[in-house]
Write a structure and sequence with these properties.
With about 575 residues, this protein is mainly alpha-helical. The protein is built from 23 helices and 2 strands. A two-stranded parallel sheet has the order 1-2.
């Protein structure tokens, strides 16, 4: 099989193979990782996380199917799992597409280097699309490598399909691939026709907002859309608008139609999937062909830098002159740099998805809502994503050629720079997350307990800010970390373990403390003590710290060990 694949690859044109290899390494923005980043290693870690998620999904599917004995409950469980896996696959594909937003379109480097070579534009187009599709295909396959077999095998054993597993497995994988193609094609269609209709400078400005909006839409729809898990709920007249507007339900219906398990009254949902899939693929192909034929010349002739829209630019003042300078430098770096903006948008999308979910709960209630984990958990997660997200983009490895300006103007003690970074975190992460949580708490009662939770949330935000400052002796957005420092698998599974071992018990303790004055006072004292201790620790370490502007790899001395 391996030899057959090699022979088929060898039949492809040499220029296509070379371009495909180069574009495959550029699907993930190298500047957003590092100039010397190990992209295959990063993709391997990413695939490892998705494979583990697929194993978890398959175990949950099998356990639920075995231990649920009631027929209607088992049917509801299988319906929920089907929709959940399709929606999760579409979310992963959507996020991967947004992260590799510009990977399929020609940039200035492509045009300047490749236009002078005897390479047809269609070869560049096909190589770029093949690279992007390869990464997305890796994501779809690894996310469903186990669950994509377990669920069809279970569904094939149910009464209904004529060919059983022989029908369910190909139908399931076709539905997953179709859903991924629809999402990928829709994004390319929007990008392509926007690039065709607008001047390049305006397109670049609008493209950044479209990228941020896509993050919010994908995550918001995933977390906010309701789940219909029973045949009665699917057939209810009040839920038809959900089926008509949710692409994940379209492709769920497509799978069940091919599997022979879709009720006749829901065929129109499957037809919608087929229609929109054709439109998305046709629009993507047409827009990409027109872009490569008509806009490659525009890419060279028009500048990439967009002039400011106006002279008004106001940023709130923060503390002394150094704190104000660091805060203004941070917010302007965040708003002007595409890589930083997209990275932080990934975290903010989770914040606003949780906020929309909480807002939906409030709007659906006809009376004040008793304080519970419904409010506690989302607000704490919003604070966590806001603070940790901003801290992570502080050291995003973008090469800044103006670092020497900040180096030569380092005339303050190091602890002053630590204090300036603290002020930036408090102003642009802790304060917005707290205000948003306070606004979403207005419908919850009793008021005294809501006020107590907001006090605890503010203290937790201060503690998170101090935790982010440990060992961070840099000016935000001016120093990158070295390649290979980040481990995607360790970070992801470590966060999951912390979630179950620390986060949930803390939420339960706070919920009980809000009902008892003594316990609440003890909780506040503990949080204040932790915040003050971390503040003193960072201030003490900052006095002897050295501000770093470039991380230098450790020197490794290799010996021949001849003395043995």
């Amino acid at each position: 099989m391996h030899d057959l694949i090699q022979r088929l690859v060898a039949r492809l044109p040499l220029d296509f193979r070379v371009l495909y290899g180069q574009f495959l390494l550029r699907v993930i923005d190298l500047e957003a990782l590092s100039i010397q980043a190990d992209v295959p290693g990063f993709l391997g870690q990413f695939a490892g996380v998705l494979i583990m998620l697929s194993l978890v999904h398959s175990v949950v599917t099998y356990v639920g199917y075995v231990y649920i004995t009631e027929a209607h409950e088992r049917m509801a469980f299988l319906l929920h799992i089907q929709h959940y896996l399709i929606a999760t696959t579409m979310l992963v594909v959507g996020l991967a597409t947004v992260i590799s937003w510009d990977a399929t379109f020609p940039d200035r480097r492509d045009v300047m280097v490749l236009s002078s070579l005897p390479i047809a534009p269609r070869t560049i187009l096909l190589a770029k699309m093949a690279a992007s599709i390869g990464v997305l295909g890796l994501a779809v396959f690894t996310l469903n490598v186990a669950s994509g077999l377990m669920l069809p095998l279970i569904l094939g054993a149910q009464p209904g399909p004529v060919l059983g597993q022989f029908q369910s497995i190909p139908a399931w994988w076709f539905a997953l691939i179709a859903a991924s193609a629809f999402l990928y094609g829709s994004v390319l269609t929007v990008q392509g026709f926007t690039a065709l209709l607008l001047p390049r400078r305006i397109f670049l400005r609008l493209s950044a907002f479209l990228q941020l909006a896509a993050f919010g839409v994908f995550l918001g729809v995933y977390f906010v859309q309701p789940s219909l898990t029973t045949p009665a709920a699917l057939a209810a007249p009040g839920n038809q608008w959900i089926l008509a507007s949710s692409p994940s339900y379209w492709f769920w219906a497509m799978f069940n139609q091919m599997n022979g398990t879709l009720p006749a009254q829901l065929f129109w949902v499957a037809h919608r999937a087929w229609i929109w899939l054709g439109l998305a693929v046709s629009g993507a192909v047409l827009s990409m062909m027109l872009c490569y034929l008509r806009t490659m010349k525009k890419t060279v002739e028009e500048p990439d830098l967009v002039p400011g829209a106006g002279s008004f630019s106001w940023v709130p003042r923060v503390g002394n002159s150094l704190q104000n300078a660091v805060a203004q430098f941070s917010i302007r770096s965040l708003t002007r740099c595409r890589q930083h903006r997209v990275a932080y948008a990934f975290y903010l999308a989770f914040v606003f998805a949780l906020a929309f979910s909480l807002l939906r709960t409030e709007t659906a209630a006809t009376a004040p809502i008793p304080l519970s984990l419904v409010l506690l958990a989302p607000t704490f997660l919003m604070m966590l994503f806001a603070v940790m997200g901003l801290r992570n983009v502080f050291s995003l490895p973008i090469s800044l050629t103006a670092n020497w300006v900040l180096r030569t103007t380092q005339v303050r003690p190091p602890e002053k720079y630590v204090a300036a970074t603290r002020a930036t975190l408090l102003l642009f992460a802790v304060a917005p997350a707290w205000l948003l949580s306070a606004a979403l708490s207005l419908r919850f009662r009793p008021v005294i307990q809501v006020a107590g939770h907001l006090v605890v949330l503010a203290l937790v935000g201060c503690i998170l800010a101090e935790v982010c400052l440990i060992g961070f002796y840099k000016v935000p957005f001016t120093c990158s970390f070295l390649p290979g420092r980040a481990n995607v698998q360790l970070t992801f599974w470590g966060s999951v373990m912390v979630m179950f071992t620390v986060f949930i018990p803390c939420m339960q303790f706070e919920q009980s403390a809000l009902h008892e004055a003594n316990k609440f006072g003890f909780l506040v004292c503990i949080l204040v003590g932790c915040a003050l201790a971390l503040f003193a620790y960072n201030d003490h370490r900052g006095k002897s710290a050295v501000i770093h502007f470039e991380e230098i790899p450790d020197e490794v001395i290799t010996t021949l060990k001849l003395n043995a």
